[in-house]
Write a structure and sequence with these properties.
alpha+beta; 4-stranded antiparallel sheet; globular
Protein backbone atom coordinates (compact mmCIF):
# COMPACT_ATOMS: atom_id res chain seq x y z
CA UNK A 1 0.00 0.00 0.00
CA UNK A 2 1.15 3.55 -0.74
CA UNK A 3 0.11 7.01 0.33
CA UNK A 4 0.07 9.35 -2.66
CA UNK A 5 0.66 13.05 -2.04
CA UNK A 6 -0.39 15.64 -4.61
CA UNK A 7 0.34 19.29 -3.82
CA UNK A 8 -1.28 21.53 -6.38
CA UNK A 9 -1.93 25.25 -6.76
CA UNK A 10 -4.50 24.80 -9.51
CA UNK A 11 -7.29 24.22 -7.02
CA UNK A 12 -9.89 24.34 -9.78
CA UNK A 13 -8.67 20.85 -10.79
CA UNK A 14 -9.31 19.17 -7.44
CA UNK A 15 -12.91 18.09 -8.14
CA UNK A 16 -11.89 16.76 -11.56
CA UNK A 17 -8.99 14.83 -10.00
CA UNK A 18 -11.24 13.26 -7.37
CA UNK A 19 -13.81 12.37 -10.04
CA UNK A 20 -11.13 10.81 -12.26
CA UNK A 21 -9.86 8.75 -9.31
CA UNK A 22 -13.37 7.54 -8.48
CA UNK A 23 -14.07 6.66 -12.12
CA UNK A 24 -10.86 4.63 -12.25
CA UNK A 25 -11.87 2.64 -9.17
CA UNK A 26 -9.73 4.44 -6.60
CA UNK A 27 -11.71 5.02 -3.44
CA UNK A 28 -10.96 7.37 -0.58
CA UNK A 29 -8.89 10.46 -0.33
CA UNK A 30 -8.50 13.59 1.71
CA UNK A 31 -8.11 17.18 0.55
CA UNK A 32 -6.41 19.71 2.82
CA UNK A 33 -5.80 23.43 2.27
CA UNK A 34 -2.09 24.12 1.93
CA UNK A 35 0.14 27.14 2.05
CA UNK A 36 3.38 27.25 0.11
CA UNK A 37 6.76 28.62 1.01
CA UNK A 38 6.22 31.85 -0.92
CA UNK A 39 3.28 32.83 1.28
CA UNK A 40 5.07 31.75 4.45
CA UNK A 41 8.11 33.94 3.83
CA UNK A 42 6.23 36.91 2.40
CA UNK A 43 5.85 38.49 5.84
CA UNK A 44 9.26 37.59 7.29
CA UNK A 45 11.96 40.21 7.45
CA UNK A 46 14.23 38.92 10.18
CA UNK A 47 16.19 36.27 8.28
CA UNK A 48 19.11 37.19 5.98
CA UNK A 49 18.08 34.68 3.32
CA UNK A 50 14.54 36.02 2.93
CA UNK A 51 15.49 38.63 0.31
CA UNK A 52 17.31 35.96 -1.68
CA UNK A 53 14.29 33.66 -1.51
CA UNK A 54 12.00 36.48 -2.54
CA UNK A 55 14.19 37.05 -5.58
CA UNK A 56 14.07 33.36 -6.47
CA UNK A 57 10.31 33.26 -6.05
CA UNK A 58 9.76 36.50 -7.95
CA UNK A 59 6.62 36.25 -10.02
CA UNK A 60 4.96 33.70 -7.73
CA UNK A 61 1.78 35.08 -6.21
CA UNK A 62 2.40 34.79 -2.45
CA UNK A 63 -1.30 34.91 -1.68
CA UNK A 64 -2.09 31.86 -3.78
CA UNK A 65 -3.09 28.88 -1.70
CA UNK A 66 -3.03 25.30 -2.82
CA UNK A 67 -4.45 21.93 -1.96
CA UNK A 68 -2.83 18.80 -0.60
CA UNK A 69 -4.47 15.56 -1.69
CA UNK A 70 -3.73 12.40 0.28
CA UNK A 71 -4.79 9.14 -1.35
CA UNK A 72 -4.06 5.72 0.17
CA UNK A 73 -4.03 2.99 -2.48
CA UNK A 74 -3.05 -0.68 -2.67
CA UNK A 75 0.08 -1.38 -4.72
CA UNK A 76 -1.99 -2.69 -7.64
CA UNK A 77 -3.81 0.68 -7.92
CA UNK A 78 -0.78 2.99 -7.79
CA UNK A 79 -0.36 3.16 -11.58
CA UNK A 80 -4.12 3.59 -12.08
CA UNK A 81 -4.21 6.46 -9.59
CA UNK A 82 -1.13 8.10 -11.11
CA UNK A 83 -2.58 7.87 -14.61
CA UNK A 84 -5.91 9.35 -13.44
CA UNK A 85 -4.20 12.28 -11.73
CA UNK A 86 -1.78 13.05 -14.56
CA UNK A 87 -4.69 12.73 -16.99
CA UNK A 88 -6.28 15.73 -15.28
CA UNK A 89 -3.24 17.78 -14.27
CA UNK A 90 -1.08 17.18 -17.32
CA UNK A 91 2.70 17.36 -17.03
CA UNK A 92 3.76 18.33 -13.51
CA UNK A 93 7.34 19.07 -14.59
CA UNK A 94 6.45 22.61 -15.61
CA UNK A 95 7.25 25.28 -12.97
CA UNK A 96 4.61 25.69 -10.23
CA UNK A 97 2.45 22.91 -11.69
CA UNK A 98 2.54 20.78 -8.57
CA UNK A 99 4.37 18.07 -6.70
CA UNK A 100 3.30 14.41 -6.78
CA UNK A 101 4.92 11.50 -4.94
CA UNK A 102 4.13 8.32 -3.06
CA UNK A 103 5.46 6.77 0.12
CA UNK A 104 5.03 3.21 1.38
CA UNK A 105 2.50 2.62 4.12
CA UNK A 106 3.82 0.14 6.66
CA UNK A 107 0.40 -0.43 8.26
CA UNK A 108 -3.14 0.85 7.88
CA UNK A 109 -6.28 0.65 9.95
CA UNK A 110 -9.68 2.03 9.11
CA UNK A 111 -9.19 1.66 5.37
CA UNK A 112 -12.02 -0.51 4.03
Amino acid sequence: MQLLFLIIKRIELVDDIMQALAQSGVRGGTVIDSLGMAKSISTMDNLPTINALRAILNGVDPSQKGKLLLIAVPEDQVKTARDAIIGVTGDLDTPNAGVFFGVPITFAEGIG
